[in-house]
Specification:
Helix content is 62%, strand content 11%. The protein has 449 residues and is α+β, with helices and mostly antiparallel strands. It folds into two domains: 102 residues; 242 residues, no CATH class. Strand 1 and strand 2 form a beta hairpin. The two termini are 17 Å apart. The model has no long low-confidence stretch (mean pLDDT 88).
């Protein structure tokens, strides 16, 4: 009978020790990313005798908190937030390319350019106002080139960041596949793989943030990683992602089978949206401003005559067909008198006539002109930045709620763990006291014989 009592007490010591070790593991990993709280599963060990006397307590395993749905919800929420945040960063930087309203920005330069034509009209034969027009035109060209260059640089930076993100994601996918195999090996030996599962959870969270992937745990303990129904990790096999195409048509490809992967979440999706949609649209609008400026000004000049009576059609002010290639005609740079400010070719009237210059000045803010196109571009960028800022705020709240919900189920509550630790310590002490009592009883019986 004493032997049975000792066995029961020893089982209590062993079980409570496992429980205390589990609590200690939880407390030490309370702030570890991807960690899921654990609990020792203690059950009655039946003795099997006719009296139904138990054989103590048995540890059937150390289980992780069940939080599959919360894990998935958190990954989806974090991926959506990362997508909006990465797009927000690009659009905010793009907005700095158009610093408006400003007294020295492109809008103000356009206004000064049109006003400079009035000065020619007031004194057609003077060289100074004509030189001022050429200088104002050169300022416009410089600003357009700078804005175009800034957008192109931003496009290159975004693509470089996207390439780095995909490279890192491929590494993470390989690591998940390797951990899947390690989990199978550990479980095959009858051991628990909780620490490996925690590592995989963290990798899955990083993949959700970077490429919007979602992990699903399988019955065999492995996890699949997928985007839009396309599996990137299955068991110990991982796909490799590559980028195909260029701005406007950039795609994420599973290089093993050539299938396009729908990038709809994660920072990669935000960067691809910027590269394929937003930045090309801004560049296209900027090019339209440049070509409209050139066609508007050169078209009006073609209707006039130079100071010597020559047709203005032969002396356009602007050359080039985009914001990056627009330039001032070198002939007018070296000789501003070639500006077709006159409305007559008759000499000497052409020298003292500024009617075409006056007509040019009236093109300020003309419907469909460069001024209105630029205002539309600035308003478009501003509206989209405001929209993405609002979206980020909303998704931040959703992501925080998802994280808190996951923490409530799978996280470590230090207060609860400390209370549990106290209970297990008391149970441990009770088991130890039982051993001491049995030992004292046996010693008393032995001494009485």
């Amino acid at each position: 009978m004493a032997e049975i009592g000792l066995n029961i007490a020893v089982s209590g010591l062993d079980a409570q020790q496992v429980a205390m070790d589990t609590v200690a593991e939880n407390l030490s990993n309370a702030n570890t990313p991807g960690y899921v709280s654990e609990s020792a599963n203690l059950t009655t060990a039946y003795g099997g005798d006719l009296l139904g006397v138990g054989a103590g307590v048995h540890v059937t395993g150390v289980n992780q908190a069940s939080a599959g749905l919360m894990l998935t919800n958190n990954q989806q929420a974090q991926g959506a937030l990362a997508q909006s945040t990465s797009l927000q960063q690009v659009l905010t930087e793009a907005q700095t390319s158009f610093p408006e309203p400003s007294t020295s920005g492109f809008g103000a330069q356009l206004s000064s350019f049109w006003q400079s034509w009035d000065a020619i009209n007031q004194n057609p034969s003077a060289l100074a106002p004509r030189t001022e027009v050429v200088n104002a035109a050169q300022n416009l060209v410089t600003s357009l080139q700078q804005m175009s260059s800034q957008l192109a640089q931003l496009q290159g930076n975004a693509q470089g960041q996207l390439t780095s993100t995909i490279t890192q994601a491929n590494t993470l996918l390989q690591q998940v596949a390797q951990i899947n195999q390690q989990i199978l090996n550990v479980q095959g030996q009858g051991a628990t793989a909780n620490s490996l599962i925690d590592q995989r959870n963290q990798l899955a969270n990083e993949l959700a943030t970077s490429i919007g992937a979602v992990a699903r745990t399988q019955p065999d303990g492995t996890a699949t990683i997928a985007i839009g129904g396309i599996a990137l990790v299955s068991g110990s096999t991982a796909a490799s992602l590559t980028l195909s195409g260029g701005p406007g048509n950039l795609q994420l490809i599973d290089s093993q089978n050539g299938v396009a992967v729908p990038a709809s979440s994660g920072s990669a999706a935000g960067l691809m949206a910027a590269i394929n949609q937003y930045l090309p649209a801004y560049q296209s609008q900027l090019n339209s401003i440049a070509t409209t400026l050139a066609s508007t000004v050169n078209g009006q000049l073609a209707a006039g005559y130079t100071a010597t009576g020559a047709s203005g059609a032969g002396y356009p002010l602007f050359q080039g067909n985009s914001a990056g290639t627009l330039s001032v005609n070198p002939a007018l740079l070296s000789n501003p008198q070639l500006i077709a400010a006159s409305s007559t070719s008759t000499m000497p009237d052409a020298t003292n006539n500024g009617d075409n210059a006056q007509a040019m000045a009236s093109l300020y803010n003309v419907a469909g002109g460069p001024d209105q196109l630029y205002q539309a571009l600035v308003q478009n960028v501003g509206s989209q930045v405001q929209s993405i800022n609002t979206q980020v705020q909303g998704q931040t709240s959703v992501a925080n709620a998802a994280k808190q919900n996951l923490q409530a189920v799978a996280g470590v509550n230090t207060d609860s763990e400390m209370v549990a630790m106290l209970g297990f310590q008391q149970a441990y002490q009770a088991s130890a006291k039982l051993i001491s009592s049995i030992n004292t009883m046996v010693q008393s019986l032995m001494s009485s014989i």
